[in-house]
Write a structure and sequence with these properties.
This protein is mainly α and 89 residues long. It has four helices and no strands.
Length: 89
Amino acid sequence: FLPFALYEPFANSWNHIVMIPATAFIAVCLFGIEELATQLEEPFTILPMQGFCDKIGANCDEIVSWAGQGQDDEADVVRQNLEALMPSR
């Protein structure tokens, strides 16, 4: 319906020949807006989400594997610090 809407504004041009590039330009602009709207709706289709998730999972596994390591040393340090701050009565 776009060419019919442009018919009257281009009434002064010869044989309405200017309508062809004008219609093409407006159509390209409208398709661009449509593509932008699609990208805003689903922004993660262009990102490598599987790679991100795999890396996060590997980091979580590494953090969980540290659990319990060095706790004995840490308890001794905490006990020594508490003894230094509050001497026995």
